[in-house]
Amino acid sequence: MRILITNDDGINAPGLHTLEKIAATLAGPDGEVWTVAPAFEQSGVGHCISYTHPTMISHFGPRRFAIEGSPADCVLAGIHHVLPQKPDLILSGVNRGNNSAENALYSGTLGAAMEGALQGVRSLALSQYFGPKNAEIADPFEASAIHLAPLITRLLDTAPWGGDDYQIFYNINVPPVPADGVKGAAATAQGYRGHGRFQVEPHKAPSGRQFIWVKGGAQHDPTAPGTDAAANLDGYISVTPMRADLTDADALTALKNTL
């Protein structure tokens, strides 16, 4: 199996090192793992692409490249420039922090998986939830390292991957617990924590100029039963099938009746 991996935390992020090991397990001794990751952190860029300016690519080592751009840029570069053939699988992550609920809409980790699906490649976004039970242990990515490879194998063998146009991709969030605290995996919908979650905090520089920091809301508020963050906070790996199609089918039906 030929696997392309990327992330939004940058090519030196510890979660990417965890993903390299996961991908090597999945690829097997005869497979290939190619890394094309952002040269620096790209958290929160979503599905952004560098459409209006050129993007530098650097060769870091065998099958390892850095892009001065977004995770979606990395997928495009990997498929259309770096790899000798189209990959069989794209893995994005392992993100430092959850991409459940509204976080999914901002996530560069998901942006890479979405681009992979648009390019017709089976793609998964992988994130490690952090909390008091795992943030300070020796390897906070331990649960991902142990549980994700077998789960991905099951999904590749049995999960739906179809789509005549907008292909399915999967958003996977590992709960904020050590590996032995993971209760299993659950199929979930995307949750909603509410109130937008993101805010801004203004600051004044010594020069008098105004700046703002964007900051997120509480990450441990539960979402509705059967949704991603609720499952994560209960100790389960959430597996959420997604598509890039943003159409609201129910509203479309009502609109047709109105128009």
Quick summary of this structure?
With 259 residues, the chain is of the alpha/beta class.
Explain what this protein looks like in three dimensions.
By secondary structure, the chain is an alpha/beta fold. It has one domain (2-191, 222-258): 3-Layer(aba) Sandwich (Stationary-phase Survival Protein Sure Homolog, Chain: A), CATH 3.40.1210.10. Helix content is 29%, strand content 25%. The strands form 2 sheets. A 9-stranded mixed beta sheet has the order 3-4-2-1-5-6-7-11-8, sandwiched between helices. Helix 1 links the parallel strand 1 (2-6) and strand 2. The protein is globular. The N and C termini lie far apart (49 Å). It is found in: Cytoplasm.
